[in-house]
Specification:
Layout (H helix, E strand, L loop, with lengths): L1 E3 L7 E2 L12 E4 L6 E7 L22 H27 L5 E8 L8 E7 L7 H11 L2 E6 L2 H8 L10 H4 L9 H6 L6 H4 L14 H10 L6 E4 L2 E9 L4 E6 L5 E5 H18 L33
Parallel strand pairs: 6-7
Antiparallel strand pairs: 1-2, 1-4, 3-4, 5-6, 8-9, 9-10, 10-11
Helix pairs in contact: 1-2
Length: about 300
């Protein structure tokens, strides 16, 4: 089964155990700070153990009215803390932006803990802010600075594709993404077109990169000559999702789409035909250097000098 703490938020998978749950039920999810209330968005179903679902935490059962009341109080405390933090940041004129607030009502060494996640262009001295927040909220304060990608994960939103952000739904770890991946996929090097909501390169560029890299390794390059059954042609484009290439025929000038397997065979046919049509050249004789003693006598010998004997 899958649950979510926020509407349209990240999905967390649980082991339902022996109980039955329906979509929309409020259930208890075990966390480091105790059970938390979440909504069931995916009813339990049987899966194969080899699909990566082993070792899931077991659902704590349906939430009781006491759990629901505690969850509502914690939500109000988070909203209050976020509002107070924004006011105090504006009062102290700090270059900080509050992204999310988490409230923990009990712990081992504290009674109430408020964790505030924020973004800033550089390191910020917020020691005075922590003191004011602790006095205003009557709780222990923990300020954590996060990056732009983590901020997009917490806030959520819609990507260029119109769907929810991958980092806010199912993506667990951020893998490195480079501009070279966009070039391999023939995407424009415009940051506005290949950047996500966080301002960095879109994480989805990593998804199809192995497919494009394998296609570029096996497919004929643009401008390469190929030989088809009805004539020769030149590769003018690639269609990676369709696993095909676009070829312009040399005789008629028309363009046609050809599968990758046929294009690779046509390239090999053209290369073999071009190799067989070449006439082997005569090998050149190696040039050797001879010493002066082994060289032939000069045509005009040097006349003897005076006093020498002939």
């Amino acid at each position: 089964m899958a649950v979510s703490f926020e509407r349209y938020g990240r999905l967390y998978y649980l082991d339902p155990g022996d109980d039955e749950y329906n979509v929309g039920d409020r259930v208890l999810v075990p966390t480091e700070t105790g059970p938390e209330v979440a909504e069931c968005v995916w009813a339990p179903e049987w899966v194969v153990e080899d699909e990566g679902f082993e070792g899931l935490p077991v659902c704590g059962g349906l939430a009781t009215p006491e759990h629901l009341e505690r969850d509502a109080v914690n939500r109000r405390r988070r909203a209050e803390a976020k509002l107070v933090a924004k006011k105090l940041i504006k009062k102290n004129d700090l270059p900080m932006k509050v992204v999310a607030v988490d409230f923990v009502d009990s712990g081992i060494d504290f009674d109430q803990l408020i964790v505030i996640y924020f973004t800033a262009p550089h390191r910020v001295d917020f020691r005075a802010l922590v003191s004011e927040l602790a006095r205003s909220l009557q709780a222990r304060i923990d300020l954590r600075q996060i990056g732009s990608r983590d901020a997009a994960r917490l806030v959520g939103g819609l990507g260029n594709c119109g769907r929810d952000l991958c980092c806010a739904t199912f993506l667990k770890d951020f893998e490195p993404v480079s501009l070279r991946m966009a070039k391999v996929q023939d995407l424009p090097p415009n940051p506005l077109k290949i950047s996500g909501a966080c301002g960095r390169l879109m994480c989805c560029l990593k998804y199809e990169h192995p497919l494009y890299a394998e296609f570029a390794r096996t497919a004929p390059a643009v401008g390469e000559q190929v030989a088809l059954e009805d004539g020769d042609g030149v590769v003018v484009g690639h269609q990676v999702p369709a696993d095909s290439v676009v070829i312009r025929m040399s005789a008629s000038g028309a363009t046609r789409s050809c599968s990758l397997a046929a294009a690779c065979g046509a390239r090999q046919l053209y290369a073999s035909r071009a190799t067989s049509s070449q006439v082997p050249s005569q090998p050149r004789k190696p040039r050797t250097r001879r010493r002066w003693s082994e060289a032939a006598e000069p045509e005009h010998p040097v006349p003897p000098t005076a006093g020498s004997s002939c």
